[in-house]
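Saturday, quiet lab. Running sequence design on the structure tokens for the scaffold JK sent over.
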């Protein structure tokens, strides 16, 4: 699937006497803002804006290149426990891993996403990007709230859930989500849960 500034290429290579015509499915608008400038001007990305500034990712998101930012909205940050959010925001390494987990290494418009596509993030992990009917999905969940916000250095999709990589979790959080959750209960009952957090 080929896209031009997120417009889908419908018919290619119509040769004319004075050139060639490609038919696309929408009007291409002028794009002037970088991904960083979009973050700075969008009200629903206020928490993300603060997180990007704290992790020194501003220069990356305004540099030349082609990235996809899966931008967590304020709502996405509010969904996770305040204690977990404060821990990540207070840990520069965990925060950088969290944000890099939301940045894909290439520009990926919604029109070019097909079911079962696996994309590598800047953090080095992978995300399953796909579609279910008309909805885009991340790791099987339809959490993309707004898509195809074009930037000079890529594309932004707004997501309404935070994607927390394992590297930004404590041992306790990892264990709770796995097959050893009963063991963590025993640690807690024994008064040893602080070692896992």
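Result came back. Writing it out in full:
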């Amino acid at each position: 699937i080929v896209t031009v500034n997120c417009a889908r290429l419908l018919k290619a290579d119509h040769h004319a006497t004075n050139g060639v015509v490609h038919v696309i499915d929408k009007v291409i608008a002028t794009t002037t803002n970088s991904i960083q400038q979009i973050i700075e001007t969008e009200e629903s990305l206020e928490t993300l804006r603060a997180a990007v500034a704290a992790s020194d990712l501003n220069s990356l998101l305004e540099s030349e290149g082609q990235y996809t930012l899966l931008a967590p909205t304020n709502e996405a940050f509010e969904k996770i426990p305040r204690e977990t959010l404060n821990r990540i925001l207070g840990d520069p390494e965990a925060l950088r891993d969290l944000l890099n987990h939301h940045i894909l290494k290439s520009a990926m418009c919604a029109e070019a996403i097909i079911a079962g596509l696996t994309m590598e993030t800047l953090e080095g992990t992978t995300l399953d990007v796909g579609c279910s009917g008309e909805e885009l999905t991340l790791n099987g969940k339809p959490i993309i709230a707004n898509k195809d916000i074009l930037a000079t250095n890529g594309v932004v999709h707004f997501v309404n859930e935070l994607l927390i990589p394992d590297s930004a979790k404590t041992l306790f959080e990892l264990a709770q989500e796995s097959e050893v959750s009963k063991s963590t209960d025993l640690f807690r009952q024994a008064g040893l849960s602080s070692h896992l957090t």
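Notes for JK: The chain has a mean pLDDT of 89. The CA atoms of residues 48 and 72 lie 7 Å apart. Ask whether to fix the surface positions before the next round.
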